[in-house]
Amino acid sequence: MQFKDIVGQRDVINRLTEIIDSGRVSHAQLILGPTEDGSLQMALAYLQYLCCTDRQHHTTGDLRADSCGTCPSCKKISQLMHPDLHLFFPNAANSRVKKDPSCAEFQQEFHDFVLEHNGLATLDDWYESLGIENKQGLINVRDAADIVQSLSLKSYEGGWKMVVVWMAEKMNDQTANELLKTLEEPSPGTVILLVAESDERLLETIRSRVQTVRLVPTGSSRDTALAEQFGPMLVAWLRLLFKLKMKELSNQVETMAALGREQQKLFLQYTLGVMRGCFLSSAAGIPYSIGSGDEKFDAMFPRMITQENIEAIEQALSEAIFAIERNAYSKIALMELSFRMSKALKKK
């Protein structure tokens, strides 16, 4: 993966190449942004540039430098075959691995998945590829032990020892705690890149030990796709929250619960984004369109989100996402969310 293959992010890339060229490489970093915006691509391109033996520096164009793409190190990293590159990711038991799953069991599948999708596929795509059905993927304590073990070994090629943890927010607390010392006091020649879409689910002790690189949002096409997928359901649900007719609301919650856990989380994350967009529209006059397909609703609803209720709404949605991630009974979690949302929406 080369920087030139990443759409946008030129300012971020130029800052990173300048830091690497200066020799001020941070040993533990968090690359923060949706996979669709290139967060995993950025991690892999960063490591390829770091290890490249013939870095290319440009005097024209908007990209100050890039890896050569042709030296032995570049070729190995681009194919995910470098012996000092270790990849970790959410996993769960499937039809092949029925007990004690870990990243070690799924390395080939993950390598093939990343290469097939050029590092841009979503977590749901990975779960579907892995065939774990509705199970919750985790980066578990067995994976933490493998990370520590990988970094304790001598570099095969005498250079950097590299770890990429994709979807680092899927580490459970035990996993995260096992990595604290490694993040704080890594062995010489170590680079650990945590790749996450949100840092809200990362322990503060993790966030405090890494240097954060935030990507610039570019996901308009993703937002459009989410609006097409979930917009009608969101409108139907929100209308019921104002009416609060229990039978109809119960039926709607049944429909939402039938999505499956990962889709439920995606729906709630989409809803959280809509609420924030509506608040910016009503409070600051920033143009925002829900894009649900219901023009009357899209025009009316943003002014319902105000300074008086946005905090309660965000908290309710965030806690519901957290509950579903922890395998709470989704119908109960979504019904409780409905009551909290209804109360907050009426406080405007």
Succession of helices and strands: HEHEEHEHHHEHEHEHHHHHH
CATH class of the largest domain: Alpha Beta
Looking at CATH, which topology of the largest domain would you report?
Answer: Rossmann fold
Identify low-pLDDT runs. Answer: none
* Count of DSSP-assigned helices: 14
In percent terms, what proportion of residues is strand? 5-15%
Ends apart, CA distance between termini = 48 Å
The count of DSSP E runs of length 2 or more, i.e. the number of strands, is 7
CATH architecture of the largest domain: 3-Layer(aba) Sandwich
Average per-residue pLDDT, rounded, comes to 91
Largest sheet: 5 strands, parallel
Silhouette: globular
Task: Estimate nothing, just give the exact number of structural domains.
Answer: 2
- Structural class of the secondary elements? alpha/beta
Estimate the helix proportion, in percent: 40-55%
Query: Superfamily at the CATH H level of the largest domain?
Result: P-loop containing nucleotide triphosphate hydrolases
Q: Using the CA coordinates, give the radius of gyration.
A: 22 Å
Instruction: Identify the strand order in the major beta sheet.
Output: 4-5-6-1-7
